[in-house]
Amino acid sequence: MVEFPEMIDIPLAKAIDAGMEWLLTHLDGFFDAIGFVILQVVNAFEAVFLFLPWFILIPLVGLAGWKLVGKWKSGIVFMLLLILIGSFGYWELAMRTLALVIASVFFSLLMGIPLGIQMARSDRTQSILQPILDAMQTMPSFVYLIPALMFFGMGKVPAMFATIIYAVPPVIRLTNVGIRTVDREAVEASQAFGATPRQVLFDVQLPLAKPSIMVGVNQTTMMALAMVVMGSMIGAKGLGMEVLIAISRIEVGQGFEAGLSIVILAIIIDRITHSFSEKK
Fold first, then answer.
1. In terms of CATH, what superfamily is 12-51+88-278?
2. How confident is the model over 67-94, as pLDDT tens digits?
3. Which of 1, 116, 157, 242 could form a disulfide with 35 if both were Cys (CB 3.0 to 4.6 A apart)?
4. 250, 174 contact by CB (below 8 A)
């Protein structure tokens, strides 16, 4: 009596598997095209970061820390932290990881900000997307690796695809919240002066919602970094791969160095992106 009745059986797993097989059979060319675009973008970012010598990139990051964060001490700390990554021998892997993160954030913003704007403009769209975003944020991150692996095989593309899905919800939510919390009097005043809906959006709502949107960008970036590390499980080269190798070999020192390098990247990215939400 205490066991759940076997007659109540919802074959959700079978339905999902059948749907995946249909997609792989009928939309193979579509996924190939998406994979090609994603690969070209991430390769472009990777080429830029690997082309820039360390003695140029480190001062640039230090300058960004000084000008954006607003403290010259932050710039010096950022430079010392990057030098520390280089001293571990992980400079190239860190740049590959950074390229994956930036490319993932690029696609996430490309999708997320328009969806957030649409959510803010339509209560119906919000009611539809809200439970979907809840599911995307609460789903275990490893689950995203399974369909990505089926659609795109091993390598950078499936890692990017899974990262985009995992990282996009915060920017959608906070773009929606930022626009909805814009003072109605400011919107009504612009409309009274004859502003078109497009002008209201770009000249009033988005500028006033910028702090909230930039917090979304910050959260998306941090989630992308976390997921890119997990993407190393399906062939994405970077610092995450070094962590996996250290785990498989039980090499504590190597794992600590690679993990610390990831933490350093996270700190620098977090401070720089968070500074945009504080700028008025």
1. MetI-like (1.10.3720.10)
2. 888 788 888 999 999 999 999 999 999 9
3. 157
4. no
